[in-house]
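User: I'm curious whether this sequence folds into something compact or stays loose and floppy. Could you predict its structure so I can see for myself?
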Amino acid sequence: MRVFYRRLCAVEETVAMIMFASIVGLVFLAAFLRTFNHPLIWADDGAKFLFSWAAFIGADIALRHNRLVGVDLLVTRAAPKVRKSFEILVLIIMMALLLAFVYYGMRLSINNWDRAFQTLSFISYSAVTLSLPVASVLMAVTCATKLVTAVQNFGDPGHRMKDDAPPQMIERSSASSV
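Assistant: Here's the prediction. I'll summarize afterward.
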């Protein structure tokens, strides 16, 4: 199962990079061709489609690497077991919200089935709104993985929940800033 999850993560990162590069290339090409009076009228809709998927897949990648925005002013000053308890609680709340996103995202996708892009009329707008429930499932799997790891290592004071830089990297970066 771990091998499958690692491969899924690698595929996710590759797809997100390709989508982001495609957005940049498509928008640049559309702007370039517009200067010569040959606009790509479908470029905005194509970029919108790619952006929705890249953003939500990128959110799962950020979650996996602990790079989502968070406020941990009080939690970092707490004892290790209290800190781990808070992080477990946050993961449980996140999973509940993600499951709600799956449910309501699927309803939104179903409701948008008849809606089409303005210039890409052969593609349903559900292709955009489907990015929310799909990415929410991926993020729920990431949360579940983190939750299992957190519970298994709850009593280990040396185990760090966050994927932060090792202490030697922190010392080196603070020494170089002085």
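Summary: Confidence is low (pLDDT under 50) at residues 164-178. Residues 2-35 form the longest helix (34 residues).
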